[in-house]
UniProtKB/TrEMBL annotation:
Protein name in the entry: fructokinase
SUPFAM superfamilies: Actin-like ATPase domain
Cofactor: Mg(2+)
Keyword Magnesium among record annotations: yes
Family of the protein in this entry: Belongs to the ROK (NagC/XylR) family.
Its EC number(s): 2.7.1.4
Sorted UniProt keywords: ATP-binding, Carbohydrate metabolism, Kinase, Magnesium, Metal-binding, Nucleotide-binding, Plasmid, Transferase, Zinc
Gene Ontology MF, one: ATP binding
């Protein structure tokens, strides 16, 4: 495969947005141009990772790939002293708990792997090239199969004892029992697409626009946004993921958040400029994985 790049030398990177439903895999250039891309179903680690390797290995014969960026569903271990550093830990995703995913990919592809959580990767992508540019504090939230968030503070992904697991924040709700296997009625157990489907006993995408589910969803996410605003003071809260594709949901969340704040904070700008959709559309996570591959995160293994 030959590309007309003129005299400009481009570096090539492998990028993976590893989600609970699918792995988005791509070969991407320095300039964010996606050379080749595929989607692989998240089944078992053996099946999925075999297909990932089968996608990248032929590309390695055509391109010099510098490294692999992995933005992975989790929780994922970021403790450099831990045996499972770079691996998935206590995920509710069947078969994937304690999978040393970064080490396996590094060994099989003979590449350094730079990694972080999927939502931290998406937050980084939006900070560099999307809706969170020129912010001091920004939060990216994905509401889909699961629910999670990543935080950028002064240009750095926020880490502490672990990466943020904001989807497991406890919020008030009229729902008696949520569907998180660990916490029941946490945010993910109430407002992820999976939990909404269980609550209303039908797939989320089949819920009519006027269904009461959407007002309840807006209330749940607005409680979350309220908590983010009073704790982190973010300039941007970016709401992505499949559930947020529903028409009018973003507006409902903005209005409910304003109601919950009750004019307590002087934010200095309209709420619709703070709570926004991703500027990178569906590419936030994949471009975040590119940024990780370029060394713009903090974690990696197999470094040469």
């Amino acid at each position: 495969m030959t590309e007309n790049l003129g005299t400009t030398k481009m570096n090539y990177y492998a990028a993976i947005e590893a989600g609970g439903t699918k792995f988005n895999c791509a070969l991407i250039r320095d300039d964010q141009h996606i050379v080749k891309q595929t989607r692989i179903a998240t089944t078992t680690p053996e099946q999925t990772l075999n297909q990932v390797v089968d996608f990248f290995q032929p590309l390695q014969a055509q391109y010099t790939i510098e490294s692999l960026g992995l933005a992975c569903f989790g929780p994922i271990c970021l403790d450099k002293q831990a045996e499972n550093y770079g691996g998935i830990t206590t995920t509710p995703k069947p078969h994937w708990a304690n999978t040393p995913i970064s080490r396996q990919l590094s060994k099989r592809l003979n590449l350094p792997v730079f990694f972080d959580s999927d939502v931290n990767g998406a937050a980084l992508g939006e900070y560099l090239w999307g809706a969170a540019q020129q912010t001091n504090v920004a939060v990216y939230v994905t509401i889909g199969t699961g629910l999670g968030g990543g935080i950028i503070v002064n240009g750095q992904i926020l880490h502490g004892l672990h990466h943020p697991e904001m989807g497991h924040m406890l919020i008030p709700s009229s729902v008696e029992q949520g569907h998180c296997p660990f916490h029941g009625g946490c945010l993910e157990g109430l407002a992820s697409g999976t939990s909404m489907g269980k609550l209303w006993q039908q797939p989320t995408q089949t819920l009519d626009d006027t269904h009461e589910a959407w007002q309840l969803q807006a209330d749940h996410v607005a409680s979350f946004c309220h908590n983010l605003l009073v704790t982190l003071a973010p300039e941007k809260i970016i709401l992505g993921g499949g559930v947020m594709q529903k028409s009018s949901l973003l507006t409902m969340i903005i209005e409910a958040t304003q109601t919950k704040l009750a004019n307590y904070l002087n934010l200095g700008r309209p709420m619709q400029e703070i709570i926004v959709e991703p500027a990178l559309d569906q590419a936030s996570g994949l471009l975040g994985a590119l940024a990780l591959a370029q060394g713009k995160g903090r974690h990696g293994i197999g470094l040469k």
